[in-house]
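Annex B. Sample input.
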Amino acid sequence: MILPSGSALEKIYGESTESAKRFQSLAENFKKQFSSDEMEFFTSPGRTEIVGNHTDHNGGKILAASIDMDTVGAARPNGTNTIRIVSEGYGKQITVDIDKVDSVKAGIGTEVLVAGMVQGTREFGFQVSGFDAYVSSNVIGAAGVSSSASFEMLMCSIINYFFNDGRMTYPDYARIGQYAENHFWNKSSGLMDQMACAVGGPILLDFAEGVHYEKVEFSFKKMGYDLVIVNTGKGHGDLSEDYSEVPAEMKAVAKELGAERLCESSLENLLEHLPQIEEKLGNDRAVLRALHFYEENRRVEDAAKAVQDQDVNALLQILTESGNSSWKWLQNCYTRLNYKEQKVSLTLALTELFLKEKKDGCCRVHGGGFAGVIMGIIPCAYTDEYVEYIAKYVGRDNVYPMNIRQTGAVHIEK
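Annex B, continued. Sample output.
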């Protein structure tokens, strides 16, 4: 078997020793499962949302980036119409008959997700045939760094490489992943997770008209800070209702403004008609969430300028404001279904106490929220101290200093 080249691994991971061991293990397990030395290698990262919390589904803007946790796979076409996937830590082989995806019922599970991606690939005019894949991931599951989108984008990179001659674009990848989640998982997801995993590096996203993105030159490390993701100890697999209510409530306000999505109206229009909307909807939270949308869009624009100007103080202030808005206006730091459990809020409070003492850095809820993880932007001089501090409350295995990675979902050259 021929493994990924050292230069390719260096480009993706910044080293080629530990990553080579990982792909050696991947190749050996593929051969064990599928009795073949012939395989190609693929990688797809997780993602971090820097600013732009819950804006994509209403045509908003986001500054996001891929991270140095990823899902990797060894794969080959198998000449049939059956997809066979073995995933480390998953109890059984995932098998999907491409000819029968129409009959797959919406629900949960990886088989359902893969079936949805097959159907989505066809819906968007691309080809898909059977393949075998062995998959391994170190992206934190059910914790807000998009392990599911990372897996979806890995599948897209495999399908693109083997069956579509590289014709699929990153927005195509994202739409296929979103289709699978919306139509097969019954999850009202936007496109941010998939785009941030697919493209790689920091990107500025705008969903007002389709999917527009541009790469941004940016690194917390170069500014003197570390990105630290903290898993607060509660997953979010059972919070679909909480997630779905956010876009639904925002769109209910948009409808009262004569629009389908909030991006088609304005903050000024909302403020002008707020009393009537409040009376009509009888839902103050929906109005608060709409106010969050407009202010968060502004913050994304301000953050992009701060990054361009290398103004770290301005960026930290913007991220702090974003986190406060998510906590108070968007209200996605705990689920109303179990309001006594507030692991995200508690971990934020503990982190704020640490940062107050240091007089530097910031923190905020990360990703979809309601449970899962927070993001800390910690001065490099205090990162080790913060890790030890917060580990006392959440456990060392739940604290992840990480870096922004420049490579998205790709086939790896041998």
